[in-house]
Amino acid sequence: MVIEKIFIVIAILLLLSIISCKVSIKLGIPALLLFMTVGMLAGSEGIGGIEFDDPLVAKSIGDLALTLILFSGGLDTQWREIRPLLWKGLTLSTLGVVITMLLLGSFAWFLLGSFSSFDIGTKGITWLEGLLLGAIVSSTDAAAVFATLRSSNLVLKGNLQPLLELESGSNDPMAVLLTTSILGILTTSDASIINLGLSLIQQLFFGSVFGYGFGLGAVWVINHLRLPSQGLYPIASLALALLTFGVTVLFSGNGFLAVYIGGLVLGNRPLVYKEIILSFHDALAWLMQIAMFLILGLLVFPSQLLPLAGVAVTMSLFLMFVARPLSVFLCLPGNQVSFREKLFISWVGLRGSVPIILATFPVIAGIAQADRIFNLVFFLVLTSVLIQGLSLAVVARWLGLAESQVIVD
Q1: pTM for this model (two decimals)
Q2: In a structure prediction context, what are the per-residue pLDDT tens digits for the chain, which is 409 residues long?
Q3: Distant-in-sequence, close-in-space partners of 273: CB < 8 Å, separation ≥ 6
C-alpha cells in the first residue's frame, strides 16, 4: 500500500473515532466501545478488509499507549484528593487484583478444565492457565475508567471519583506483574511462587522509587530548561515520561507504576507552562486510546468469538456479580465506605484495553491455550464495556451517588 493510501486510511479511522466520541456523549455509549467497533469493522472480517494479525506489533503499540495514558492520568490526579484515600486505593489495586485473579482463574478452570460442561472442541485448561486468564483481566482499566467517567459527564458524590481513578491508575502494574510471573512459571522450569513474590516486591519497590525520583527530577528539569518556545515544554515532558519507563524497566522495576507516580508528582508541583503541558498530554492520551482500541479491534476475528460466546458470557457475569464485588467488599471492610458506595465501586470494575494487550503476551510466548485465552479476554472486555459502561450513570443515580450530569451540546 502506497503512503498516500495509508494516510487516507489512518485519517478516516481517526475521524470516525473522533465523531464516535461525540456520538458516545449524545447517546451515553462508552467511547471505547465505539473505537473498538470501528476497528472491528475496518478489520479483515469487516467492511474495511484491512489485514492485521501481528500480536507483537499490537503489544508494542499498546505498551506505548498505556505508558502515555497512565502518565496523563497521573498528571490529572490531584494529590490533595487522593491522599485521604491512598490506603483504600492501594488495597484495591493490589490485594483486590490478587483476589479477582484467584476467583476468576479458579472459575475459568472449573468451566474449561477436565470436567468442563462447555464442549468447544479443544483441550481443557489447567488451573495455572486459568489463573493466567484471571490475572490478565484482574485489573480495572485506567483508560476505560477515565474515559467513561469523563465522556458520561458524571459528577459523583464524595470521594468516589478520585478513589476509582486512583485504583484504576495504579492496579495495571499488578496485573502486568501477575501475568508475566505466571507466564514465567508456565514457560520455564525453574520458576516458583517464591520467585514470583520476590519479583513482585522488586518491581513495586523500584517502580515506586524510580517514579518518585524521576517525577522530582522532571519538575526541576522543566522549570530550569529556559527553552526558546512554549511548544517545546510538552515535548520535554513526553521525553521524560518515556525515559522514566525505560530506565525503570532496565533496572527491573515496573515501568507502568513508575510513569503513573512520575506523572502524579509532576502534576502536583509548581511547573512552568503547566496548562500547556496538561493539555498536550490530555490530547495525546486521547490519541493513544483511539489508536490502541482501533488496533485491538483490527486484531480480533469476530468469527472466532462465536464458539466461545456461552462460556465467555458466563465468565463475564461471574466477574461482574461475584469476583469484583467480593474483592471490593473484602478490601474495604467496615463503615468508612458506605454499602452503596461499595456496590458502585464493584460495578465500575470496567475492563478495557489493558487486558487485551496482556492477552497478547501468551500468544507471543507460544503457550498452548493462547488463542483461546485471547478471544475469551476480548469477549470479557467487550461485555464489560457494553454492560457496565452503558449503565454506569444509571447505577450511580439509582444508588443516589450522582450529584449532577452535565448535558453537552
Answers
A1: 0.81
A2: 578 877 888 888 888 888 877 776 666 566 667 777 787 787 777 777 777 777 788 778 888 888 898 898 888 878 887 788 888 988 998 899 999 999 999 999 988 875 454 544 456 788 888 999 999 999 887 666 666 666 666 677 877 877 887 888 778 778 888 888 888 888 876 656 677 777 778 888 898 999 999 999 999 999 998 899 999 999 999 999 999 999 999 998 888 889 989 999 999 999 999 999 999 998 998 888 788 778 877 777 777 777 888 888 999 999 999 999 999 999 998 878 889 999 999 998 888 778 878 888 888 888 888 888 888 988 888 888 888 877 887 888 888 887 755 444 4
A3: 230, 233, 234
CA–CA gap between residue 368 and residue 356 (Å, rounded): 18
Where in the chain are the domains? 3-405
Q: Which CATH architecture has domain 3-405?
A: Up-down Bundle (1.20)
CA separation (Å) from 300 to 147, 179, 304, 313, 387?
Answer: 22, 20, 8, 17, 20
Compute CA 41 distance to the chain's CA centroid, rounded to the nearest angstrom.
22
